[in-house]
Write a structure and sequence with these properties.
This protein is an alpha/beta fold. It contains 15 helices and eleven strands. The chain has an eleven-stranded mixed beta sheet with strand order 1-3-2-4-6-5-10-11-9-7-8, with helices on both faces. Helix 4 links the parallel strand 2 and strand 3. Helix 5 packs parallel to helix 6 and helix 9 crosses helix 12. The longest helix is centred in the last third of the chain and has 25 residues. The protein is globular, with a radius of gyration of 21 Å. The mean pLDDT is 96. The site of glutamine has 13 residues, from loops.
């Protein structure tokens, strides 16, 4: 028999339905894998007892022919940015020491309601700021994949723990959040599928905020079908988040028809950047060819403001972060470092509680929002954001989806780019434009680099058209035939 940890969400679902194994057995197999792979540092908090209890409840529901939902009994991991009732929630930060929410985020509650079993909370860049999972207070996450030199590599970030857990088969799926690429980029680095839905598709309620106009939760899985199943369980309107869209949740799995004949796939010329990594360019060409072979029409399009996306993002995201992070004052949450006065206590708590990258963002954010610079930076960035969104609107008049690379490189070694924040920010060059425009995007593992490491391609779609994105991604996945197994489980 196949190992239970080698199943996908879809095949595990079918096996549970047929009674081939129980949810407790499936969960136990994943708990054992999670324990054996502690060296990856993918989890900040493991919740095996809770998982076993929920799995047992799932088995009871099933025995009573009272199944809860589409993910009943499926073990998953939850990024430590989602508040989980009674379970430590850190956002990867020292400042949230000991923070145990009394409530559950809407997304994790939706998954719970669908029957999913939480194995634990995954490691992440502090407050989701990063592209390599090297800014966590809880240490680096190690990518389950290794290149030829055998060095430890980053899994991408900020959802690096979720990516590593899914890639190493410690969980069948995991939640991530994507503000500028944090689902798609780690998916590309770790050889899995990562879907950022349209802004507003999933509720942000109960998710620790980074940049509120950009943050969006999404699934990280080993197949496109699993992403469709998991998104269906996560998404939905939520009256507690005024930016959550009041629209229904389609059957995303039903969209996987395997047919993209006549689908118009746009290739944005501005994504072909100077000095582009030739392997990434070759992969992109291969992906274009696969879509063509599958019957899609390839259309060249232009997104003229692409070059402004990265600087625009690195004004807007830190501005919003500086406002959101003002609440960590030593009074309301987690860590408190005493001082001689109230102001000193604030300063001591924030100095000790935040890491360097978070401080950098708060400094940038307060600077661009300050009275003297607001017009020059923040207001200007908002205007450029609109132009970037308009470029996409125009392109989508002519095409159904866009195909681009996900990340400019393969996973790099832990330690690289660490002293150069701008080099780190460049990882997001292909992902941030769609984030600024609020569009859905998916990364599909499409090939290996010469060094034997996974590389992903990105498909972007129209607002709330995840169905077409998933349909196209499913075809790309089949054509690429990528083997998601890194071949080492810890
Ligand atoms: N790497 C980007 C940043 O550091 C994106 C992070 C994210 O999407 N959460 O801001």
């Amino acid at each position: 028999m196949r190992k239970l940890t080698d199943l996908t969400i879809a095949t595990a679902r079918d096996g549970l339905a047929k009674g081939d194994f129980s949810a407790v057995e499936l969960t136990d197999a994943h708990i054992a894998a999670m324990t054996a792979a502690r060296g990856l540092n993918a989890f900040i908090t493991e919740t095996p007892d809770l998982a076993r209890a929920r799995a047992a409840e799932s088995d009871q529901r099933r025995a009573a022919a009272n199944s809860a939902g589409p993910m009943d009994g499926i073990p998953i991991a939850v990024k430590d940015l989602f508040c989980t009732e009674g379970v430590l929630t850190t956002a990867g930060s020292h400042i949230l020491d000991g923070f145990v929410p009394t409530y559950e985020s809407t997304v994790s509650q939706n998954l719970r309601d669908a029957g999913a079993v939480m194995l634990g909370k995954t490691n992440m860049d502090e407050f989701a700021m990063g592209s390599a999972n090297i800014t966590s207070y809880y240490g680096n996450v190690i990518n389950p994949w290794k290149g030829k030199d055998g060095k430890d590599l980053v899994p991408g970030g900020s959802s690096g723990g979720s990516a590593a857990a899914v890639s190493a088969r410690l969980a069948l799926g995991a939640t991530g959040t994507d503000t500028g690429g944090s689902i798609r980029q780690p998916a590309s680095f770790s050889g899995i599928v990562g879907l950022k839905p349209t802004y507003g598709r999933c509720s942000r309620w109960g998710t620790v905020a980074f940049a509120s106009s950009l943050d969006q939760a999404g699934p990280m899985t080993r197949t496109v079908r699993d992403a469709a199943i998991m998104l269906g369980a996560m998404a939905g309107h939520d009256a507690r988040d005024s930016t959550s869209a009041p629209i229904g949740v389609p059957d995303f799995e039903a969209a996987l028809s395997g047919d993209i004949k006549g689908l118009k796939v746009g290739i944005p010329k501005e994504y072909r950047m100077d000095g582009m990594n030739p392997e990434i360019e070759a992969l992109w060409a291969k992906g274009i060819d696969m879509m063509k072979q599958a019957g899609a029409d390839i259309v060249d399009v232009s997104l003229p403001n692409t070059q402004h996306a990265l600087p625009t993002y690195y004004i807007i995201a830190p501005a919003e972060a500086s406002a959101n992070l003002a609440r960590y004052d030593g009074v309301r949450y987690g860590l408190r470092v005493p001082g001689g006065s109230l102001d000193e206590m604030y300063a001591n708590t924030r100095s000790e509680g935040f890491g360097d990258e978070v401080k950098r963002r708060v400094l940038m954010g307060t600077y661009v929002l300050s009275a003297g610079f607001y017009d020059a930076y923040y207001r200007k960035a908002q205007r450029v954001r609109k132009l970037i969104a308009d470029d996409f609107t125009k392109a989508f008049e002519a095409v159904d989806v866009l195909l681009t690379p996900t990340a400019p490189s393969e996973a790099f070694a832990i330690g690289e780019k660490m002293d150069d924040p701008v080099a780190m920010y460049l990882n997001d060059v292909f992902t941030v434009p769609a984030s600024l425009a609020g569009l859905p995007g998916i990364s599909v593992p499409t090939g290996l680099s010469g060094n034997g490491l996974p590389l992903g391609l990105q498909l972007l779609g129209k607002p709330f058209d995840e169905e077409t994105v998933l349909r196209a991604a499913h075809v790309l996945e089949s054509a690429a035939g990528f083997d998601t197994n890194p071949g080492r489980e810890g």
